[in-house]
Amino acid sequence: MSTSFSSLPIISLSALLTPGKQEDLLELSSRLDEVLSTTGFAYLTDLPLTYTHEDVFEICEDFFGENGIPDEEKMKLAKRTFVKDNENTYRGYFPAQPGSDNLKEGFELGTPTPSIASITPPQRDAKFNLTEVNVFPKSDSSFRTRCETLHNELQGLSAQLLSLLAISLGKSSSFFDHYLVNSLSTLRLLHYPPIPESSRQDLICTPHTDSGIITLLHQDKTGGLEVLNSVGEWIPAPYVPGSMVVNIGDLLAKVSGGRWVATYHRVRSAEREPDKPPRGRYSVPFFFEPGFDCVVKSMQGDEVVYGKHVLEKMKGWIEFQDVLDDVPDILLESKAVEVF
Ligand SMILES: O=C(O)CCC(=O)C(=O)O
Ligand SMILES: [Fe+2]
């Protein structure tokens, strides 16, 4: 149950930096449980990552910045929804959609070294492929390495958090380990371009809950992220130095039988500073995702096959509208599985 919080709690992950102390890990486990049962959102500090906040946003700047990847090269990486001749349907670049409320361009990658068994080769007639390989710009090889390292680090942290969450549910620490097999986790670099004053709008990302399991969010220093509490107030969640934000998605809320909450959030456009040009914003959400064939079970015993669940969900996501018109019904059909 979400509560009437007025700021987001801060959780130190120092117990993960110096592993070995069982009681510290148990304390962290119950702190995560408490937070996910109330606010559903928290800042994480003392992160067990080698990449700093600056490193993460340098990656964004190297892609989207003034001296970043030229538009022409970006469009070579665009998903097929945007460039009909491109092979990639799920990974890669998406341009900002003029006229939409979600004014952002992005670049997405999945697990860097997926097992061969989990990769479905590109097929011109299968218009949509959750398990395709990543695409990267050719002009900057360090970009690829840095993205992959960040993905690996965030995947490792997600696995640790899932173990702690399993313990908090009274299960063994390996309870969620099957989620890790052929994981489809997505690292998304986002750029909200500056909006000219003449077409100013209040929100650059509309209110939503995340659909999946766990989201780990790096946000830059611009601010604008807001989180909805139980009495309908939007609580600002600006950048706290050295932190990342954690929240859960609808699917994990269901898995927990409603014990944990997937909280609504949105992004407000940056306050204009007098005599300065409008500012853009970068953020980097990492969406931890199970494998396509992973059976995700709720505490109540409902179950869903993760890949099918995602394909159902994507029907409502604007960037995939065209593509999903062509997904064969058979892929979305499920006999034993109820989409909960
Ligand atoms: O840009 C942000 O800070 C939030 C992005 C977000 O909520 C999302 O991509 O799901
Ligand atoms: Fe979100």
UniProtKB/TrEMBL annotation:
Might you name a Gene Ontology BP term for this protein? small molecule biosynthetic process
- Any idea where the Fe2OG dioxygenase domain is? 182-290
Q: Does the keyword Cell cycle apply?
A: no
Q: Which UniProt keywords apply?
A: Iron, Metal-binding, Oxidoreductase
What one GO molecular function would you report for this record?
oxidoreductase activity
Entry keyword Oxidoreductase: yes
Cited Gene3D superfamilies: B-lactam Antibiotic, Isopenicillin N Synthase, Chain
- Listed SUPFAM superfamilies: Clavaminate synthase-like
Query: What name does UniProt use for this protein?
Result: Iron/ascorbate oxidoreductase
Organism the protein comes from? Amylocarpus encephaloides
